[in-house]
Specification:
Helix content of chain A: 25-40%
Oligomer: homodimer
Distance between the termini of chain A: 62 Å
Structural class of chain A: alpha+beta
Largest sheet of chain A: 5 strands, mixed
Number of strands of chain A: 15
Strand content of chain A: 25-35%
Radius of gyration of chain A: 26 Å
Largest interface: A-B, 82 and 82 residues
Shape of chain A: globular
Chain lengths: 377, 377
Amino acid sequence: MLEADLLIITGGLGPTADDLTRQAAAEALGQPLVEDAGALRQIEQSFASRTRRMPAINRVQALRPQGAVILPNPHGTAPGLYVPPGAHACDIVCLPGPPREMQPMFEAEVVPRLRCPLDHIVRTRLIHTHGLGESAVASRLNELMERSRTPLVGTTASRTVVTCRIRYEGPASGLHGSTPDELVAATEGEVRQRLEPYIFGTGQCTLASAVLELLRAQQRTLAVVESCTGGLLGAMITEIPRASDVFSGGWITYSNEAKRGHIGVPAELFSTGGPGAVSEECAVAMARGGLDRAGTTDCLSITGIAGPGGGASSKPVGTVWIAHASRNGETVASGVRRLQFPGDRTSIREWSALTALGMLRLSLIGRDDLPLLGEVR
Amino acid sequence: MLEADLLIITGGLGPTADDLTRQAAAEALGQPLVEDAGALRQIEQSFASRTRRMPAINRVQALRPQGAVILPNPHGTAPGLYVPPGAHACDIVCLPGPPREMQPMFEAEVVPRLRCPLDHIVRTRLIHTHGLGESAVASRLNELMERSRTPLVGTTASRTVVTCRIRYEGPASGLHGSTPDELVAATEGEVRQRLEPYIFGTGQCTLASAVLELLRAQQRTLAVVESCTGGLLGAMITEIPRASDVFSGGWITYSNEAKRGHIGVPAELFSTGGPGAVSEECAVAMARGGLDRAGTTDCLSITGIAGPGGGASSKPVGTVWIAHASRNGETVASGVRRLQFPGDRTSIREWSALTALGMLRLSLIGRDDLPLLGEVR
């Protein structure tokens, strides 16, 4: 009846009465549920590591259809299930729903079990850019994106990052005398020629991890002063392990009083007729004030209007100023950009934090001259 | 051939050569692609609002299969498509892939077009809790979760928040003399009895928005001092519109030097033999130092080991101290909790920020006595 080679089910492996994947799988397979001693031990240990006793209700998570194999879950209590093909034609895999549990289990337990035709392989390579819009990236890639090409070249846009995906699918021996890896590398070379200097990394690299690497390599240190992003830039930076090597911390100066009191933005900027909190002057004062107090070599500041309220005709929602102050020996310099971002509060805040990282990156590679997506010049 | 009443396709509506949903839909429908003048105008305006000119490549986004209706996209350039049932039996909807564009379009354009049997309706109600694990919530709900019950009661866990979902599916006239709304309300009453005081809100409410509401109602103000979360708590708070009413800002004290310099944590805490940065003493000094400098009524601090490095046998990865300092008139008080969180760096940071909000919430409702999920007592 089933025509698929592989059936993946996610979710429904929790301990509560509405978690029915185990029961449904057993029923569909015509097998009884049996308790797996190893799985039970693992679940008990998972609670013990958090100094808790396993509630009785979680015992159900150690059940598996007879003939199924338990897939260990190092990130939660719900083990996965693998049912090798039997009377049914296909592999069946049941994975927990939460992404942070599901993804590692997929990598560790499912990928090695995939039965691919040995002669047909897929190779992908992700090349991440920041600063250009998706249309601009596509214009530069031009004929590389033709659908008849091998390897295929595609683009995806997520927030301000445009990723170029190179994908080879074909014989394991390659084509035209080149191996798959050689074909992908040759295409990557062409992509790089067209998109440098906007490329910040490949694969798992994020804009934050790329910037931290540059700072580390140049023995520089960073602080942040955030208004409309309210900590989001700091959160993106500290999401990366070992951020503490180069990141000292910063200030969330959400109110004008905090801008004045914590980092010394002059009070007259906020008085009637002054430029206000969302201005070039305020952004620069925030970055310089932060640099001064943190004692780092670099400081980024962000001030803007994330909405939905607070916009005006001269400063509509999405208006953001980002400044970068840097110290080289005795000299302190600063750069500042005005940006106009689309979308809702969440988007404007994410674009702001990512664009601050992109601005710092351009400075660290000596390309302060390049405009950034969303910039108003 | 198709047995579905509705086909929803997401993604592939971008401007580049690998965005093929429009072409594929036209081909499947046997219709030519035509340019929609209204859609073209909207796309041009979307760029104009960001002070950019529409790149030529984006013109393709104004194409639609003949007979299809354009669905406007207020959050991006890609309009959606709606194809009413014709020779094919089902409604076809094409939506853009990015969630922030897709979700509002689904709400505004797809939901009103759903053709449901008039006599069969679904009513759902989400009730969010913080502080209990999913197993503990399920134990309290007990027989309410039986699968034969109407309305159904289920639970989902996302990070530290456990949501109880009440779902009525049945005749629009209700059952046993009660309307669907009455049945849902009666079940909600039972759920509330069993889960109060852990319930912080319903529907779209988040832990951050609930805490901001409590602060606003009690005319209190908040500052934060973050170490291992690096700004994530501030980011969660400022994600909520009008956070500025009650949130003044704070400090990202990632390095020990920042803890000492910016908010006056005593240097001796960090010296050899001292309790160190991840300790009750440091968490309390951070919260009190922040309260003092911010001049707010409340201050939350977080210090912990998010990993993957930095753990020790006495302070394993996942060890987090959270403190809350509060001012009532002349009196300053502080509470502090030790937590042990599971999972990777991302999880530990998210759990930490959410648990800080949950701790503040318990204090604001006068239930400081209740333990929190992950707490070590």
